[in-house]
Amino acid sequence: MNSSISKARMMGARASVLEQVEGLEEKKKDKLDTHIFELYMEDLWTRIDEDKKSVYTYFDSLWFNNYIQGVNKSNILKWIKAKKLFSRRIAFVPIVCWGHWSLLVLCHFDNTDCSDTKKGPRMLVLDSLNTAGPTRVQSSIRRFILDIYKTEEREESKDFIDRIRLEFPKVPQQNGEECGIYVLYFIYCFLQNRKLAEVIENKGLEEDFSQLFDDGSFDPEELENFRNDVHLFQANRSTKTEE
Fold first, then answer.
1. What is the pTM of this model?
2. Does 84 fall in a domain?
3. Which domain holds residue 236?
4. Structural domains of the chain, count
5. Which of 1, 17, 39, 108 has a CA 20 to 30 Å removed from the CA of 194?
6. Taking residues 107-125, what's their average pLDDT?
7. 129 within some domain
């Protein structure tokens, strides 16, 4: 009897250890580095049509962090200039700060008239971990945008730039360390979700984006499938590296 109990306990302990190991492996796959992030973004960009490529753009995932750290600042602003922000409908700016990923979306910077209640420029910060305090990047974002305008030698005043709306919409929240995957998923939604694209296109400046994903444009099953796709991409890259 005691032998059977001991054997059962050992089997239970072994199963528990295996579950912990599998959980750690899963978390490891969820935590993206900038190298994998950039490779996946390149792959994602090949899957969209040319019309979208002409009106959307994205910044390198290290540019914002390096900018606020003062690393290679003049070159970063020069590289951003080459992205032609002011002829794009949407620009995606990954933010990697304090060990956490979030996404800055620059909308309608191709329209420089803040008085246009339909398509004036506005900024959204999408953060899958609200407890990280997304508003703490606000001053850095304002400074970043101001320097972009200066580098481009734009005519808009500082007062105009300060009046560009910066919003922090409610978005799906992470459960572990998958913030990088969430940023990729948010970008994917903008590129592939017609309903979300229509919301961005049609909301007037007097309307806010506080409930951006509450209109049925978020699908938990789609997010899980996307997460698995990123994991598969990582595994394939690891296999190629080993070869």
1. 0.83
2. yes
3. 41-240
4. 1
5. 39
6. 75
7. yes
